[in-house]
Specification:
Largest sheet: 9 strands, mixed
CATH topology of the largest domain: Aminopeptidase
Structural class: alpha/beta
Distance between the termini: 45 Å
CATH superfamily of the largest domain: Zn peptidases
Strand content: 15-25%
Number of strands: 14
Helix content: 25-40%
Number of domains: 2
Length: 422
């Protein structure tokens, strides 16, 4: 058995152990600050301790494992951050997020076993609120690490009325110390994350690993279309102000705009739809739907937003219905730092594989960490591009290759770090 495959098998065993920690018997659901999350924190902390890391849990529940620098010098005052999240969606797979944490732990374990001294410290971080399922927040723990967590978010409540502040307190954290969770930007060299692709590109192209160029920006909107209710059997088609028919045409226009933006990795999704009054024999007079718009960079996404608004307004005018489109969420594109992209690419090529660069359409903790430091991501091929699903799967060989690529990337960054005495 090769050393790389052994790394993959160790990763799989750790992922299986994490997958057993769930709030719902029979399926993997581990929400932020839940009992299962507490067990996952304890397990990850134990793994970190066993390989000699200094372990702590910060005010927002992030598990931190610190390895000190092994060489004196300028770089010894810096830290490289490696991480991902250990919370899940409801009925999740076992690779999304968790692979990045496990890969970081295994990489540091291997570096120690190979007696590799680094000119900087390394922190492995296990975040807890990437999925944003329990509370109306997202990236709370990574935002705290980046120093951008808003204290007002502590008042957010889950479906049972429990505030984030109370949940953190019950978890054993000190929510009012959230500012202390932030790193000083001058102390950080960069942030690396290993993650399954959550898409089909690498599998289709027969590549195990990919280098992420950017984490797509996201804009989300609430759309309201208002018409006039009427009897389904008596109002002629030409005289109707049908809010649902107008909305259907708008959705087709949205799809056209997204298809025209394929060169920018653009995608648009209408994920929620409500129709009023919702009777089988009444013409709908009010429709609400959501729009999620993403692209690899901000300018095409902004242009697409304006094009969608213009086309929907034209449809509304022609059909004599009201239309409004209100943005409720916006997150700028996170470009991955060229130096970190190149370090990952060099590591992949050193392992005998070609480099494939691609955009991440999904959001990640890097969206928050970009406020602190440079971000770099490595994608791992996943079967069918399936994620947020129990069918989520990555092979042992691909995971082992990803850990080895992470080890080599850390080594390349070490070679580039100034180790002269201050």
């Amino acid at each position: 058995m090769t050393a790389t495959r052994q790394l993959g098998e160790r990763a799989q065993a750790m992922l299986d152990a994490l997958a057993a920690l769930t709030d719902e018997p029979g399926r993997l659901t581990r929400l932020y600050l839940s009992p299962a999350h507490a067990k996952a924190v304890d397990l990850v902390a134990r793994w970190m301790t066993e390989i000699g890391l200094e372990v702590s849990v910060d005010a927002l529940g992030t598990v931190r494992g610190h390895r000190k620098a092994g060489k004196a010098g300028v770089g010894g005052n810096k830290r490289l951050l490696i991480g991902s999240h250990i919370d899940t969606v409801v009925n999740a797979g076992r690779y999304d997020g968790m692979l990045g944490v496990v890969a970081g732990i295994l990489a540091l374990q291997e570096l120690a076993a190979r007696e590799v001294a680094l000119p900087f410290g390394v922190d492995v971080l296990a975040f807890g609120d990437e999925e944003g399922v329990r509370f109306p927040t997202s990236l709370a723990s990574s935002s705290a690490v980046a120093g951008i967590f808003p204290s007002t978010a502590l008042d957010a409540r889950d479906a049972d009325g429990v505030s984030l502040r109370q949940a953190l307190t019950d978890f054993g954290c000190e929510p009012d110390a959230s500012q202390a969770a932030a790193y000083a930007p001058d102390d950080v060299l960069g942030y690396l994350e290993v993650h399954i692709e959550q898409g089909p590109v690498l599998e289709i192209e027969g590549k195990a690993l990919g280098v992420v160029t950017s984490i797509a920006g996201q804009s989300r909107f609430n759309v309201l279309v208002t018409g006039e209710a009427g009897h389904a059997g008596t109002v002629p088609m030409t005289l109707r102000r049908d809010a649902l028919a107008a909305s259907a045409e708008m959705m087709a226009a949205i799809e056209d705009v997204a298809l025209a933006g394929r060169a920018h990795e653009m995608v648009a999704t209408v994920g929620r739809l409500t129709v009023e009054p919702g009777a089988i024999n009444v013409i709908p007079n009010r429709v609400r739907f959501t729009l999620d718009l993403r692209a690899e960079s901000d300018a095409p996404r902004a242009a697409a937003t304006e094009e969608i608004k213009a086309r929907c307004r034209a449809i509304a005018e022609r059909r004599h219905v009201g239309f409004s489109m209100d943005r409720f969420y916006d997150n700028a594109t996170t470009p991955c730092a060229p130096r970190l992209q190149d370090a990952f690419a060099g590591a992949i090529e050193a392992l005998g594989h070609p480099t494939r660069r691609l955009t991440s359409g999904a959001g990640h903790d890097g969206h928050a960490i970009k406020a602190l430091t440079d971000v770099g991501m490595l994608f791992v091929r996943c079967r069918g591009g399936i994620s947020h699903n129990p069918a989520e799967f990555a092979t042992v060989d691909d995971m082992g290759l990803a850990v080895e690529a992470l080890i080599k990337t850390i080594g390349k960054l070490a070679d580039q770090t100034d180790v002269s005495e201050e």
